[in-house]
Structure formats: structure tokens, C-alpha cells
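SAMPLE LOG
Freezer: B-3
Tube label: C17
Construct: single chain, 106 aa
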Amino acid sequence: MAIAQVTIVPIGTGSTSLSDYVADLFRVLEQEAAGLRYELTPMSTIIEGELDDILRVIRHMHEAPFLQGALRVSTSITIDDRRDKKGSMQQKLESVERKLGGGTEA
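STRUCTURE (predicted):
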């Protein structure tokens, strides 16, 4: 299972505001993400699942701003694909929390 962080930035939109594009990208993710876990953050989106599925969804997300009129799109992807043991977004967070001496608190 892989975890990917993706940031998609439309360029040439005529505005510095990108929230409409981000909302559209999230809709694409929701429609395409069967079998994937994902989390929207203030600076990027984290996607967890099989690598081929992640890359397919990112490809669709990358194309979305062009359909809204963007003239250029910059997409940055970071992939963590660990194969020696099963990992997840939650497992990674819990590992750090244990090292900090705490657990998850409500």
C-alpha cells in the first residue's frame, strides 16, 4: 500500500484565489477514489491505497483545472511506497505519537 501527497496548482487563471479549483479537484477525487482513503489538508491532499489506483486518480485530478480554463497546471507528487511491512496514514501518525510519549487524545 502506498501513500501519496499531491499538490495541484492551476496557473494562468486570472485570479490568485484557488478555492474553486480545489473544490473541483476534491469532487474529482471523491468520484474516482473507490478503494482509496484520502485527506484534504490546507496545503495538499494525502491519498492512501494501491499505487496504480493513486496514480490514476492523480491523473484525473491533474486534468480537471484545464477543464475549468486553467492555461497551465503544476502538479507535485510525493509517494511513500513501503513494501517491507503494511503501513497507513493512521499508523504513521500513531508511530510518531508513541515516540512523543502520548497516545491519541480526544
